[in-house]
Design brief:
Blueprint: H1 2-20, E1 29-30, E2 33-34, H2 36-49, H3 65-75, H4 81-85, H5 91-101, H6 104-115, E3 121-124, E4 144-148, E5 151-162, E6 169-176, E7 179-186, E8 192-198, E9 209-220, H7 231-267, E10 269-270, E11 273-274, H8 279-307, H9 313-342, H10 349-359, H11 366-384
Parallel strand pairs: 3-6
Antiparallel strand pairs: 1-2, 4-5, 5-9, 6-7, 8-9, 10-11
Helix pairs in contact: 1-2, 1-3, 3-7, 5-6, 5-7, 7-8, 7-9, 7-10, 8-9, 9-10, 9-11
């Protein structure tokens, strides 16, 4: 299995380094993410190179999580790599979810265009904090759904919805009398109105992060995923792999930042010698090497747990905390090593810093994961007491 993944990853790495990295200065890189025309162009090149959606095999089967890690790390070597190879969030997580729980008809209509790289998707869960809506605690969900004949009618407001602008497939979470529900929605839909695209610290995701109003959205009953009240169970299926794939992609970007900072430190001379020969700089790069290797091993460990069939909730929380914090340290040191160049747009190091800083919030901030782990520690202690 590893040989298969290594062969795919080698093709992906060669493609990202030779074809995609030159696009990092493209004029179509907008403040709220790359324009869809650029994404389409990059995906056409990935399709031609045979590296589009590389984690899903031609027969529709999925690489194991450990194999996926080997491949997705390579797509992350450029901020544009996951977009080009169709391994980016939220599409990668949405494809995984639909592959696991979608009906045959739902897969044909909603999943297949995503796998082919012909459409983007959005996951409508997070709600405005100002109104007490769902964030890290999805049980606070205020968006409602009610059955009306053979349709469900959905109303609510969602916030920080990645890629909503320009998406063709939506997964909308709402609350019925039975509990949380998930719905598949064709986009755009006039009942889903963008209030604004929010200015955020990151800029790698097409469509940015939108706040939207959902007013009397009518969804046919056969576009519900599963049954009413099963939404949280399906969210758990998506949750751990999505957390971990973030770790994979950002490890690739942090690795690239380390390469750039190392090259700078070895070429740049100050005070009579290369920067790397100054202990303060050399130690920062050495610390980065340690953090990168520890992040890689943490990802591989958690992926192995998921490959057993476990939901891996606690393990993915641990991995998400450890990896996001480690990669942030790496990106921060790379900026520091490069001085003024590090805070400029001359390289992707400053973007790596911004993207990875945001990653420490996305898919649950560090503090929420630690709180969840602390609750598990207490439960385990109580169980041990008999």
């Amino acid at each position: 299995m590893t040989e298969r993944a290594n062969a795919i990853a080698s093709k992906v790495e060669a493609f990202v380094r030779t074809v995609i990295i030159p696009y990092e200065k493209d004029s179509r890189l907008g403040f709220h993410g790359p324009e869809d025309a650029l994404v389409a162009e990059l995906r056409a090149k990935a399709r031609e190179a045979g590296v589009l959606t590389p984690h899903i095999l031609p027969d529709g089967s999925h690489l194991t999580q450990r194999e996926t890690a080997i491949v997705l790390i390579k797509t992350g070597l450029s901020p544009l790599g996951p977009l080009a190879c169709n391994t980016a969030a939220p599409d990668e997580g949405n494809m995984y979810l639909l592959g696991k729980v979608g009906s045959a008809e739902q897969k044909t209509r909603f999943l297949d265009p995503l796998v082919r790289g012909e459409a983007r998707s959005a996951f409508f869960m997070t709600e405005p904090a100002e109104t007490g809506g769902a964030g890290s605690d999805p049980s606070m969900m205020q968006t409602t759904c009610r059955l009306d004949g053979n349709h469900w009618v959905i109303n609510g407001r969602k916030k920080f919805i990645t890629g909503a602008e320009g998406a063709r497939v939506g997964i909308v979470m709402a609350r019925s009398d039975e509990g949380a529900c998930m719905f598949l929605v064709d986009l755009p839909d006039p009942a889903i109105r963008t209030v604004r695209v929010i200015d955020t610290i990151d800029s790698s995701m097409p469509g940015g992060h939108a706040e939207v109003d959902i007013v009397d959205l009518r969804v046919p009953a056969d576009q519900m995923l599963g049954a009413s009240g099963e939404g949280f169970a399906y969210a758990q299926i998506r949750l751990s792999p999505a957390r971990l794939s973030h770790c994979m992609r950002w490890l690739g970007l942090a690795t690239r930042a380390q390469e750039i900072a190392t090259d700078y430190a070895c070429r740049r001379h100050a005070f009579g010698k290369p920067l790397v020969d100054h202990e303060g700089v050399g130690f920062m790069l050495a610390d980065n090497l340690i953090d990168l290797k520890q992040a890689e091993r943490m990802i591989d460990w958690c992926a192995g747990v998921l490959d057993t069939g476990s939901l891996g909730t606690a393990e993915s929380s641990m991995a998400k905390v450890a990896v996001s914090d480690a990669l942030f340290r790496v990106a921060d040191r790379c900026v520091q090593v490069m001085g003024g160049t590090g805070v400029s747009g001359d390289t992707i190091v400053e973007q790596a810093f911004r993207e990875i800083r945001a990653f420490r919030i996305y898919d649950g901030p560090t503090e929420v994961h630690k709180w969840s782990l602390a609750k598990k520690i207490k439960r385990d202690w109580k169980a041990a007491q008999g």
